[in-house]
Amino acid sequence: MQLRKLSVLYAEDDEGVQQQLAKFLQRRVGKLFVASNGKEGLEIYQREKPDIVITDVSMPLMGGMEMAEIIKADNYDTPVILTTAYNEPDFFIKSIEIGIDKYVIKPVNPDALIDALAKSAEALIRHRLIDAQNRMIHMVLDKSPDFMVLIKNDHFEYVNKAFLTYLGYESPEAFEAAHNEGDDFCEVDDKKFTVGQQTECVRYVIDHPGTHLVRLFSGQRHEAHDLHVSYDYFPEVEKHLLSFKPERFAA
Length: 251
Fold this sequence. Notes:
By secondary structure, the protein is of the alpha/beta class. The chain has 2 domains: 2-135, Response regulator (Rossmann fold, 3-Layer(aba) Sandwich), CATH 3.40.50.2300; 144-249, 2-Layer Sandwich (Beta-Lactamase). Helix content is 40%, strand content 27%. It has helices at residues 15-26, 38-48, 64-74, 89-98, 110-143, 161-167, 172-177, 198-207, and strands spanning 7-11, 31-35, 52-56, 80-84, 102-105, 147-152, 155-159, 184-188, 191-194, 212-217, 224-234, 239-246. Strand 1, helix 1 and strand 2 form a beta-alpha-beta unit. Helix 2 packs parallel to helix 3. The longest helix is centred in the middle third of the chain and has 34 residues, at 110-143. The chain is elongated.
């Protein structure tokens, strides 16, 4: 079961409820941390970084909503499950703004809690799998001597190391920072695009299959580089892979 591989923080100020549910949870999760208020829960979270958080709303020193808001600000992908007796519209609006993942109405039905935990675990593991796959893809791209750009939703998702080195940048962040909105960014088949028109530039290449002559302007060096570009599309992940070659190396 996925839950046995995960750690859980459970915050509840009612001692009787806490003991009962903690005993129930301990048999079903990999590691359980228990707190009696939001302040204690936040300290445990910051020290242990549990995979999933379950918290009551009303607790002394710090409430569950306040604790959840701080946790979500630290790592939005940490699933937070609220156990609550509240049924007010303002409460649900606030919880949506914070990013609360699941609710279990008090008094807590153990089966409902396990169901919320299982769904949160499934979403968390799926997210981690996608994250691991992306890291692997980026690692493979960085090992390639070719100039590669990964496109998602018409925007640059990743520029590989070979391309960054060729353009004179140490990182994707430096590449982004070196360009201002109105700077010339690229010229494709004699059509010029500014940094603010990156989407249009990418879309032009995607909508016109084949090889194009691209002049890419470096915001750092203020130079223009003539490149041939072609691309492949992977519909399963809705991503385009653009491959660039300097004109002198193009076939």
